[in-house]
Design brief:
By secondary structure, the chain is α/β, with parallel strands linked by helices. It contains ten helices and six strands, in the order E-H-H-E-H-E-H-E-E-E-H-H-H-H-H-H. A hairpin with a 3-residue loop joins strand 5 and strand 6. Helix 8 runs antiparallel to helix 9. It is globular and about 55 Å long.
Length: about 200
């Protein structure tokens, strides 16, 4: 079973986005650790001091991004890369999803979208190693369709773009999606059609 850590320095935020039943359901999950008050602050201080040794036992770390300083962000990134630990950063200041997959998966997202009604179900599946992508938290079973549709849009923009630097940026993003999904430009339309037909 995968162990999961949720570091939330503002407990009122959960109550703002989730009902009490869902909060209690999350707190009762044996695979989920949610440090409270003094323990939470101490853990954040450790991370911000580049002391992440206690986090190695987790498969997924979810943390409020604004609670971290630059040292803490770098320490988490290094920990996750070195130990293949997935990472979700959430913050009210984030307006879009940023997903990457290299040695580990990382997802940055808005707090409101993080604390959604699918959170408990996603964490349950993740703990049992039944998820493919962190994007399932946001898009559920439609995560791949969302990514392929974005890929098709980016490829269209890339093919029509005249600015060399913009073209390079678009190309880097499409290559990232190819790596995540295993898709090629020749297959994207047929794969999208198959996924839509399955809905």
């Amino acid at each position: 079973m995968n162990k999961i850590l949720l570091i939330e320095d503002r407990p009122g935020r959960q109550a703002q986005f989730l009902n009490n039943n869902l909060i209690h359901l999350l707190e009762a999950k044996p695979f989920l650790t949610v440090p409270k008050e003094a323990n939470c602050r101490a853990l954040i201080e450790d991370i911000n001091s580049n002391n992440t040794l206690s986090l190695i036992k987790y498969s997924l770390i979810m943390i409020h991004k604004s609670s971290l300083n630059q040292i803490g962000l770098k320490a988490l990134e290094t920990l996750c890369n070195t130990n293949n630990i997935d990472l979700i950063l959430f913050s009210g200041g984030l307006s879009q999803h940023i997903y990457a997959k290299d040695k580990h998966q990382s997802l940055s997202m808005n707090s409101k979208e993080f604390y959604n009604n699918n959170l408990a179900s996603f964490l349950e599946k993740y703990s049992k190693e039944k998820t493919t992508s962190l994007l399932e938290l946001v898009y559920e079973a439609k995560w791949k369709l969302e990514l392929l549709m974005r890929y098709r849009l980016l490829k269209t923009k890339e093919n029509k773009e005249d600015d060399y630097y913009v073209k390079i940026m678009l190309e880097e993003e499409t290559k990232g999606i190819e790596k995540i999904t295993g898709i090629s430009p020749d297959d994207v339309n047929s794969q999208i059609d198959k996924l839509i037909a399955a809905i």
